[in-house]
Amino acid sequence: MAIMTRDFNSVDLIDPHEAALAVKRQALELGADAVGIGDIGRWAGAPLQLDPKQIMPECKSIVGMVFRVERGSLRGVEEGTYFSNYSAMGYGGLTYVYIPMTVINLCKFIEDQGYEAIPMGHQSDWRAVNIKGYVGENFSRPVRPGQAIPDVMIHLRIAAFLCGLGEIGFSKMFLSPQFGPRCRVGIVLTDVELEPDPIYDGPKLCNRCMACVRACPGQAFSTEKTVKVNLAGHEVEWSDIDVLKCNDAFRGLVHSGEKQEHPYLDTPGNEDSVPGSWSPFWNRPTPLYKTGQAVCGSRGCTRACMISLESRGVLQNTFKQKFRRRPVWSVDWSKPPEYAPGTVFKPADKDGVD
After folding, report:
1. Which pLDDT does position 63 carry in this prediction?
2. Contacts of 122 (CB under 8 A, 6+ apart)
3. DSSP 8-class letter at 201
4. Widest CA span of the chain, in angstroms?
5. In the chain, what are the domain boundaries?
6. Hey, what long-range contacts does 181-184 have (CB within 8 A, 24 or more apart)?
7. Distance from C-alpha of 273 to C-alpha of 269, rounded to nearest angstrom
């Protein structure tokens, strides 16, 4: 009996139109929820450390894919009872498992036809730029004159915009017409020429309602200071986010200004940290999938935005019931906790030790 292997060169990708259709169909079959294509010319003028051609000089096309965050994965945070699901399934699981598997397998399909393809998921752990977008000192150095330093980071939300998949909202979140902010992005760089899709020109998604600003527990969004960029001839603007405030709110902490005997987050620089009113935890929970620790549950940038978009009826993925069905909860850490009847605690052992 002979071994079995994949078919090679079985799909002709010579014609850009037919090639684009084949790649899109494959992406959807592999698990993407929406897929679009941008030609490399749309990245002309990209900053050096964000330029796809620094990674693949012969790149002709970029395939952008949207992956939904299930609305149900936000339910436990919305109710205040099941936080790890969003961090695991809606955040870390997508970022570190599902999206990589999809983009890897799409690259295999393209490479089976004799073209090169680079899979890129949501993660970019070796990037040379820091959380504020600046190149870090003494991290890496160029290997050839004139090149970017390792590692180049492609801006995935901009890539999704340039692939025609939707808008970038005031919150800087990518908004797809299917799911609004309830999505993440994966891309593939390839040297095959694929017919590009037009930049999104459908129903307006972000109407500057500022629901994200009002609901963000970290007050990370500025309404006065914004970032403006030109993307393939389109002027795009978003709030100049305070990424440090976002990072704290994301993990559920507030800086009290006083050193704590048992800080919420026991790491350097956070000795004064206490839980915010949006965290029910005494201490920051253990990260899931390395970074999935979204204690805030994306209260402003995703949940408030999604509620606004759904109320306007502009999203394609509609539901039988509205998302917010009960008042927004808040934890008062100045008072002792009140436990519901039926809560069972571990009894002390015979020596009186818990």
Report:
1. 98
2. 94, 95, 99, 156, 184, 185, 186
3. -
4. 77
5. 16-136+147-312
6. 181/298, 181/301, 181/302, 181/305, 181/306, 181/309, 182/68, 182/69, 182/71, 182/74, 182/302, 182/306, 183/33, 183/66, 183/67, 183/68, 183/69, 184/66, 184/67, 184/69, 184/94, 184/95, 184/99, 184/122
7. 9
Q: Provide the β-strand partners of residue 176.
A: 180
Question: Residues 121-152: pLDDT tens digits?
Answer: 877 778 888 777 788 788 899 999 999 999 99
Amino acid 7 reads D
Token digits of residue 195: 């017919």
Beta-carbon contacts of 84 under 8 Å, excluding residues fewer than 6 positions away, are 76, 285, 288
Helix (H) or strand (E) holding 250: helix 243-251
β-partners of residue 167 are: 175
Q: Rounded to an integer, what distance in angstroms lies between the CA atom of residue 100 and that of residue 121?
A: 5
Reported as a pLDDT band with limits 50, 70 and 90, residue 61 is very high
Residues 6+ away with beta carbon under 8 Å from 208 = 170
Does the predicted TM-score (pTM) go above 0.90?
A: yes
Instruction: Determine the residue type at 1.
Output: M
